[in-house]
Amino acid sequence: MPKYPNPYAAVNDADLLSEAFARSEDGRDPLSSLRAEFVIPTKGDLRNKQYGPLGNQAAGAHSEDDDHEESVYLCGNSLGLQPRRTREYVNRYLDTWASKGVFGHFKPLEGGHPPWLDLDDALKEQTARIVGALPSEVVVMETLTANLHLLMSSFYKPTPDRYKIIIEGKAFPSDHYAAQSQLAHHNIPSSALITITPPSADSPYLTTEHILSVISQHNASTALVLLPGIQFYSGQFFDIELITRHCHSLGITVGWDLAHAVGNVPVKLHDWNVDFAAWCNYKYMNGGPGVIGGLFVHDNHAKVEQTQVDGDAKHINHNQLVYKPRLSGWWGSDKSRRFRMENEFVPIPGASGFQLSNPSALDMTSVLASLDVFSLTSIEALRARSLRLTAYLEERLLRYDSKPPPYKIITPANPAERGAQLSVLLNPGLLDHVLNYIEEHGVVVDERKPDVLRVAPAPLYNSFWDVHRFVVIFQEGCRRAIARTGSKSAETTNGAS
Ligand SMILES: Cc1ncc(COP(=O)(O)O)c(C=O)c1O
Ligand SMILES: Nc1c(O)cccc1C(=O)C[C@H](N)C(=O)O
Known about the structure:
By secondary structure, the chain is α/β, with parallel strands linked by helices. It is 35% helix and 11% strand. The protein has helices at 13-16, 19-27, 43-46, 64-68, 84-100, 119-122, 124-131, 144-155, 173-185, 208-217, 240-249, 300-309, 361-374, 379-398, 431-440, 464-485; strands spanning 38-39, 72-73, 82-83, 138-140, 164-168, 193-196, 222-228, 253-257, 276-279, 294-297, 407-409, 422-426, 443-444, 446-448, 452-455. The strands form four sheets. It has a seven-stranded mixed sheet with strand order 4-10-9-8-7-5-6, sandwiched between helices. Strands 11-12-15-14 form a four-stranded antiparallel sheet, with helices on one face. Helix 5 packs antiparallel against helix 13, helix 8 (144-155) packs parallel to helix 9 (173-185) and helix 15 crosses helix 16 (464-485). The radius of gyration is 24 Å and the shape is globular. The chain starts with 12 loop residues before the first helix and ends in a 12-residue tail after the last helix. The chain binds pyridoxal-5'-phosphate and (2S)-2-amino-4-(2-amino-3-hydroxyphenyl)-4-oxobutanoic acid. (2S)-2-amino-4-(2-amino-3-hydroxyphenyl)-4-oxobutanoic acid (3DJ) binds next to loops.
């Protein structure tokens, strides 16, 4: 009996492996209709084919029908697809800029869009719903690594006793560099960067017990724990609530990088008492490549300062509501006085007070389009669909025509410990062959050298049909790669998961 029963495990091969099964799963899920909100590139688009009078109609390896078929895009964990409404919203932004110039900042725009000056406030409520926060606790601003630095400039306050930063050993390089450079910035030796590595070299899995024990081991000397909500490589979803509680019980501040969690899994940053978090809006959020990111600062930090300053909230003025010292800019200062040019920084209470510059209205417009798609459903409903999609992907991958398969899934088997993504470790020597084959057949997934493919069915736009087509093409790619490399060992190295 498997430890985590898969709802598709009971379905017989003849049904489960059929396209009809995938199509019927799509048919009975009302959220399947959200796919129409997105532009799905065709296989021909990806192959750079254009049909029509000026297009390249030269015969290629693939039929015209195949070129016109939607590609199998399972890479929303790296870059989400474009919502159809993004073009409409961006065109409106361009029209406003062209026809109103500077007045675009102040005048409500067509289609009920707020003036650019108020776009930051307009995005709060929808963003807060997605990350389980109060609107005052979130803001759309800057980019992920920049936000981590800004937040650490407020939350990482090393003392002679407490100065270490704990991260995980396979942290995304940017997070590693950010933490490392914060230490250097404070003239603290790099040995104060503590990395949590998996107990077993065979698996990237970090048990919660292991994470808690490393934190406890360094508790007296640690100032900050910075962890990902979902690990980019393994797809492991950490127990944010428990780890946060553990850190707080030891007097340690904790921040979360939600790059791979936001828009993917429900989180409750407010209820879980997370100190701070940051994310990008270009993966599951579908805001566009390198688009403006977001951050969260718990309102508790304001309350702590309030009581320390006065104890009577009625007599608090804006100046006393500052959470923390922070690196400041004019966009974080009180809106009503912003244009008085008085050089008195009056922080906006809440996360908005962390803003620096006037944000790119183009970016904000693009994020608005993406949030409006999320508002057609809820993150909880998306999660329910995502659990089914990923379970289906898992079960299909486990059914390979010879045993063991030439790959294994390194993402936790427990659905509560993963989001949409499954990371597939291929037997040595297969990756390039498999990748060439699947890309040639219109599949887009992410590779992490030397042997891992990350496959992420994004619940907003991916379908069971996508997963079906992926597995058929991927497994055929594996068979061909094994035949080409003639590698017997390639068939047996990893074993089944
Ligand atoms: C976990 C994680 N941290 C940091 C980054 C870097 O983000 P950015 O380039 O937006 O700063 C990424 C992705 O690029 C990521 O996945
Ligand atoms: N691979 C990337 C790229 O080619 C351009 C920009 C970003 C990336 C990334 O790796 C994005 C992301 N953090 C990821 O985990 O896929």
